[in-house]
Design goal:
By secondary structure, the protein is an alpha/beta fold. It contains 26 helices and 16 strands. Helix 24 links the parallel strand 10 and strand 11. Helix 3 runs parallel beside helix 16 and helix 4 crosses helix 14. The longest helix has 38 residues.
Amino acid sequence: MWPRVHNRAEATRGNSRVRSVPDKTRLSPRVRFDRSPLTRAFPNGEWVLLLALVAQIAVFSGIAHNFFTQDNFFEVVRFSVELGLLALALTPVIVTGGIDLSTGSMMGLATVVFGAASRDLHLPIAVAALIALLTGFAGGALNAILIARMNLPPLIVTLGTFSMYRGIAEGITHGAVNYTDFPSSFLYLGQGYLWGVVPVQVPIFALVAIVYAVLLHRSVIGRGLYAIGFGASGARYAGIPVARRVGLVYVLSGVVASLAAIIYVAHLGQAKASAGTGYELDAITAVVLGGTSVFGGRGTLWGTLFGLFFLSVLQNGLHLAALPSELTGVLTGILLVLIISFDRWKLRRHAKPHAGSLTIDEESDEVKNSQVAVLCGAVLAGALIVAVTNVWLVRSLVPRAGESATSATAAVAPAHKPVIAVMPKAKGDPYFVSVRGGAEEAAKELGVEMIWDGPTGLDAAKQNELVENWITRKVDAIAVAVENKGGISTVLRKAREKGIKVLTWDADAEKDARDFLVNQATSEGIANTLTDAAAKILGGKGDFAIITGALTATNQNEWIAFIRKRLVKYPGLNLVTIRPSDDDRDKAFSETQTLLKVYPNVKLMMAISAPAVPGSAEAVKQAGRKDVSVIGLSLPSICKTYIHEGVVPMIALWNTHDLGYLAVVASAQVVAGKLAAGATSMDGGRLGKIEVRDDQIILGAPLVIDKKNVDSLDF
């Protein structure tokens, strides 16, 4: 039995001088023989995160509807699978002191390869899955060769393959192709349940977790990985094949990322190049939150699982409590910065001489107690933010005393206060910010509770996740501006099966996935208005380019199809190209600059995304191209300056406030049974009588906005 020592200096008997020893030497198993059972089970203080997770569950059980239920537990697990697989694979990578930033991009590439093999090559699903796994193997092997054999820095290598894999995926699909229509037998893998309760993909995740637990904690290979993390040079002297071990974890990372891609496709029913975007950072966050040191040599698989479920429960709880999704990033960021900073401080502290200081075990206890304080303080602060925000939101949505609803909306307000969940494509888009004002107006008039939430950017996967959470919360109606028709229709059908009324607005899902579409204007009407305006400005002849939002956006692609059809009327007009802006003003600016150089004869930019119009107009203005005009669909509030300057002769749109207002009013009437299939009109409150055409609620014709009326519009 080795004696308990304060540090290695005490083991050198007879020396009058005390020598300081680096921390990694002091962490020898010989020094730590008298650990408590808790320390042996959680060597890195993982129990701290477990306590934080329990505290988090307690908070959300009190404030979030239907949070503490069996169904929601399994939904949390189901939504953790794809990210969890990446986190499991990254744990041994980070234990060795490495990093893999390419896992999310590898997931996107494997997704596209799987979709192309299945749909374009008409291969059986099993063969397509095998090809996707081999793609992951090849990608992981490339990382392994560059890092383990050529000794290149993991950060630089995986940052390069991060861009390369995503670029290949976008090249295969041209950024626009979205593979859908997979067989139901395959979709069962991501959407089905065993015994009606357990998601089918959960056993797969459990199996992978067990394999990694054995690899990392119960094998010679795992012990070698920890040794490499403490010091690769020392591991080589100990006879450990460092290059082989490091290469193995990167190869496995690529294979597991491709497995996550297959489950992703089965879950969402679509395969596209953007799959896995941002997942690598979330996975790294889960690993680091779980106690794995970014400096290598320390970490456990169960710590990673605690970190994973901490993030998943946080996001799920915020959604069910009808709180902004952005709080997830805020709270996670606080925790991550605190933990990494604390880890760094601890390493620096241990590197100092410790003569006459605390024993290692006492020092470890002090560290863990401080870590408890940090984590619990952050969780309690987060809980306070959640509670205060929840109270504020409820008060903001409930009509003040003395306020009365309009006669039309009062007629549909039932005794039960309905909950209507409204989802934009992207919360930060000025267009959807404007729509929200009208939605909130209707919610107050009706006396209903409205939840407004959605992705911060264009993300079909996040839309699906939110709908799943709203199903768990048992809202009365869901009104969603669809980003991808094929991706969201399955989960909307599930909502209808649960008795939830479903409406779409701004962009549609499959017809059998919703009750009504609140249509701001017909696609043909929008296309004809813009094409006719372009012909008038160009005198019926000239080149023009289209700047759209996302190349996969269903509604914008429909507009483009009708624009092409309308061009038959104007044979002198020539559409030279279509470029995406991803609903981002800066990207529209950059794309326009490029188009002006590549296509110098273009005389008109047709931007059919709200942020794209001012972005394109600014590029034309800075280029001094007075011979180029910009038109499109946008808000008068963000285009007013360019309209007055003449850069933008006209824009077309509908009243965005009215669109949000009508979406909530229609949802409430469907819930109350006042609007059903077969109706030809509905009472639109302050909007008056609204036409219902088949299953579409028509707001009206597009409004042409120019110098004459732009100053009179306030949206």
